[in-house]
Amino acid sequence: MGMIKHYVFRKRADVSDTALLEAAAATMAWFTERPGFAYRTLTREPDGLWHDMAFWRDAEAAAASDAAFFSHAPNAAYVALVDPESLSRSLLPELLSALPRDLEAA
Fold first, then answer.
1. Secondary structure string (H, E, C) spanning the chain
2. How far lies 12's CA from each of 17, 75, 77, 87, 88, in Å?
3. What does the alpha-carbon distance between residue 4 and residue 25 come to, in Å, rounded to a whole number?
4. Which of 22-26, 27-31, 50-54, 98-102 bottoms out in mean pLDDT, i.e. has the lowest?
5. Tell me, what's the pLDDT at 106?
6. Who's near 97: CB < 8 A, 6+ residues apart?
7. Is 18 exposed, middle or buried (0-12, 13-18, 19+ CB in 10 A)?
8. Does 47 score more than 70 pLDDT?
9. Is 77's pLDDT higher than 70?
10. Alpha carbon distance 70, 15 (integer Å)
């Protein structure tokens, strides 16, 4: 069963959207190199609430990512831009999903 790590947060007041997006982009290579990683997306609501969602193939892969995340300097730099008081985290089991046919074999 797939797992979704869903983080909801606001950026620190002194951080621009561009700076946050650049920092997030610097973390992408780390994700793509992780065993069991499937997909990641970052979105922002009109009121400035951000959603960072990483999709993992199973609970073991999601848990293993936690152990290694902060050892990668760009990941720590990205998290430093987040307002810690606003951060919430959910680990959600994927119950049903659909992919375009050209992605199903991936």
1. CCEEEEEEECECCCCCHHHHHHHHHHHHHHHHCCCCEEEEEEEECCCCCEEEEEEECCHHHHHHHHHHHCCCHHHHHHHCCECHHHCEEEEEECCCCCCCHHHHCC
2. 10, 16, 13, 11, 15
3. 19
4. 98-102
5. 52
6. 2
7. exposed
8. yes
9. yes
10. 20
Q: Regarding the domain delimited by 3-94, which CATH topology (the fold level of the hierarchy) does it fall under? A: Alpha-Beta Plaits (3.30.70)
> Smallest Cα–Cα separation from 82: which of 13, 3, 6?
13
pLDDT at 101 over 80: no
How do the domains of the chain map onto residue ranges? 3-94
| CB atoms inside a 10 Å sphere around CB 31 | 18
When the pLDDT of each residue in the chain is averaged and rounded to a whole number, the result is 93
Strand partners for 52: 7, 42
